[in-house]
Structures are given as structure tokens and as C-alpha cells.
Amino acid sequence: MATDSILLRALVDTVQPLTEDSPDLDALVERLSSAQFVLLGEASHGTHEFYELRAAISRRLLGDYGFAAIAAEADWPDAHRVNRFIRHEGHDRDVKTALSDFQRFPQWMWRNSDVVNLVTWMRTYNRDSDTPVGFYGLDMYSLHSSINAVIDYLAERDENAAIAARARYACFDTLALQPDRYGMLAARGLREDCADEVVAQLIDLQKRREQLLKEGGTASADQLFAAEQNARVVAHAEEYYRAMYRGQVSTWNLRDTHMMETLDALSNHLGRNGKPGKIIVWAHNSHVGDAEATEREFRGEINLGQLCRQRHPKTTKLVGFTTHHGSVTAASDWGAAAERKIVRPALTSSYEHLFHDTGIPRFVLHLDQLGEAAGALHEPRLHRAIGVVYRPQTERESHYYHSSLPSQFDAIIHVDESSALLPLERSAEWDRGELPDTYPSGL
């Protein structure tokens, strides 16, 4: 590996510094503006600055460059309620109520002050816009609520179709509320699976498209698309929960393939004047960064960024985020309460530590403009990933993987010291926060 002192000098000459109060994102936004898909990552699911900067980029792309929507690492029906709110549809009259379907762990990921600010801006923008923008979910965990959404849609339009849908989805009995238990029983042959039923329901809904669109209008097409997507979620979620108990990498691949299929379907649905809709994606770095440039490739894992580049090589842009130290909103275990945790300084052999050593608090690094830094930065280094669970005591094993950053992303935004985002519902653990490792000597 090239000496870091030479690499550091090259980086300092290459990066575009960002101020904290008024970051100059013009050059980055201009580079992203011609893409069909702009995927904005995050190095954790609980960092305020990542949300804030993604929102600043998104506002520019939506408002100035004709992007049609934000598609988030969120469940489809939960996000659809937000979409109706920002389009001045439905019954919600305030943003926090519109976000109230986000109840599944991790609740704070979308019920936080930064998302409140973003959704408020989108609703205001749509009030005065001839081309309203949208907010959609890419994920596939909403088995039960998606079943209900399909039935509710049909019940308002075709009672016989609704009866048929209820009969098919009754295959789950009460286990739609416990999809992981359903998956375990079906995978182990302890009960019949529902694969045929959920696929049949999706096909039946698609066959009824012309009939269901007879009432006409854009709203009708939007509602049918939402119902079809919920039926698709049910079909893919059923397969996902069975795959959980096969002990293979397939669950990760199923999930990211579903995200890609949803993204393509959404782009086609939102197209204007014969052109597909331009969409911004908000998801974790682990989904956004090209998996072929990481050690995930050796485990047979694919991801959304990789699939998007493969399907749309000339019109995809991937932006990652990094941080060296600070605080983060995360849990200690899956399903546990949100805590405000200290993010330890990055390991010395990581990209994050290298960026810290530039001495520049915030910057954009365009990875196709590396100059002298190009060769050395391509050599694999550790790269940190904090999800909804953060375990500092096992940080190397739990939160680092090797990657080649210039192949993984088109650009990186580094925030050297970051802070925990503010959940709408804060636990005593979050309010108290985590003491730094140096306590009490570090006071």
C-alpha cells in the first residue's frame, strides 16, 4: 500500500471542502443531475448529518432537475401514507401523524426530526407545483399490512375480487402477523407454504388492470400501482421469510433484488413524456455501494447499487457517506430501545481514518477525479458500516468490511465528527446517552 503521507497530500489537493452552515453542493448536484437513478447512502441508520445532507441534495434534484421521487429503504405501505400526505391526499393533517405507520423496529429510522423537515418541505413544494414529487418505500417486510392494503383496495372496487383475495391470503391464517414464524414452519415442512396463493393473487390483480382503471384518471392509476406493489411485496416477502431458515445468503439477495424491481417499476410508473421517472434512493451504504467492490462479492451477495449499475450503467450514480467519530442513534440489540451512542474513532487501517487525517472536517470526494490519489485509494481498506445495531465492543468484527471505495461509489461525502439524529420518540436510554470511553478521566 502506498504511503499514506503521499496519499494524504493528494487527497487534500483533490477533495472539495464543505462548510457546516452552508455546504456548497453545487458541483456534486450538477454531476448527479443527468442521472436517472441517484442512490444516496449512509454509514449508519442514525446519523443526523447524513439525513441532513441527503435532504439538501434531494431538494435540489427534486426542485431544479426534474426528479420525480425519493424511494427509501422503508416499507411500501408505511411510505405510501407519507406519499399521500405530501400530495395533499388522505386524511392526515400533520406530518407526525402521516409518519405514524412507521412502528416496526427501527422506528427512529423514519420517525425523526430530519425526516419531519424533509416531508414538510415536500408537501409545501407540491402545493405550488404542476409536477408533484413523491415518497415511496422499497422494502419488503410489510407482509401483513400489504395484505390488508390489497384487500382494502379491491373491497372498494370489486367485492368478488376482494373475496377471492381474502380466500388466498387466508392461507397464512394468523401467521401474517408473525411472518418469521410462518417462514420457519413452512421452510421446515411443518405447514404448507403460501407461495402459489400469493403469486396467484398478484397475477389476478394484474389481469384486472383494465377493468380497475375504468374509472379513469391519474389517481386511479396511482392507486392501482400501489395495490399491485403491495401484492408484489406479499409475494416476495413470503419467499423471503421462508428463505430466512435455509441458512443461505439468499435472503439478502432476495431483498435487494426486490428493491431493484420496485425501483424499476416505480420509474416506469412515474415516467413523463415517454421517459422514465428520475428517482433518488435513500438507503444504507451497504445497499447503495456496488457489492462487487467489497468482500460481500466473495460471499455471493449482490446489492441494489450493483444491480442498478448493471441494468442502467450510464444513468446510475452512487454516493456514499463516511464519518470518523461522534454519536449515533442505534440499539444494542435487535428490537431494543434506541440509544444515543458514542461512535468510536475509526480504526487506523480504514478509509474513515485516512479521511480524518486530511484535517478537513467535511468534504466531497469525486472518485472519478482522484488524480495522484487514484491508484492508492483503489487498494482495499476497511470501511465502517453501522446499521440499526451498534456494538462498539466488537466493532472490528461487527462493523467493518474491506472495500475498494473508488469502485464502490461515484462520490463520497465525509463528515469527520457526526451526531445522533433526534427520534420523535426518545427513550430514557437515548436522553441519557452513552458515556465516552474516557469517563470520568475525560471530563
Give a short synopsis of this structure.
The chain has 443 residues and is α/β, with parallel strands linked by helices. The chain contains 20 helices and 11 strands.
Helix fraction, binned, reads 40-55%
Radius of gyration from CA coordinates = 22 Å
Low-confidence stretches: 439-443
Kindly report the average pLDDT value: 93
What does the overall shape look like? globular
Structural commentary:
The radius of gyration is 22 Å and the shape is globular. Strand 6 (316-330) and strand 7 form a beta hairpin. Helix 7 (143-155) packs antiparallel against helix 12 and helix 9 (179-187) packs across helix 12. It has 20 helices and 11 strands. The protein has 443 residues and is an alpha/beta fold. Strands 1, 2, 3, 4, 5, 6, 7, 8 and 11 form a 9-stranded mixed beta sheet that branches. Helices cover 45% and strands 14% of the residues.
Keywords:
443 residues, alpha/beta, 9-stranded mixed β-sheet, two-stranded antiparallel sheet, 20 helices, disordered C terminus
Layout of strands and helices, then pairs:
Blueprint: H1 4-14, E1 16-17, H2 26-32, E2 37-40, H3 48-64, E3 69-75, H4 76-86, H5 95-98, H6 113-127, E4 134-139, H7 143-155, H8 159-169, H9 179-187, H10 195-207, H11 209-212, H12 218-243, H13 250-269, E5 279-282, H14 285-288, H15 304-311, E6 316-330, E7 339-343, H16 351-356, E8 362-366, H17 374-378, E9 381-384, H18 395-399, E10 400-403, H19 405-408, E11 411-418, H20 428-432
Helix pairs in contact: 3-6, 7-8, 7-12, 8-10, 9-12, 10-12, 12-13
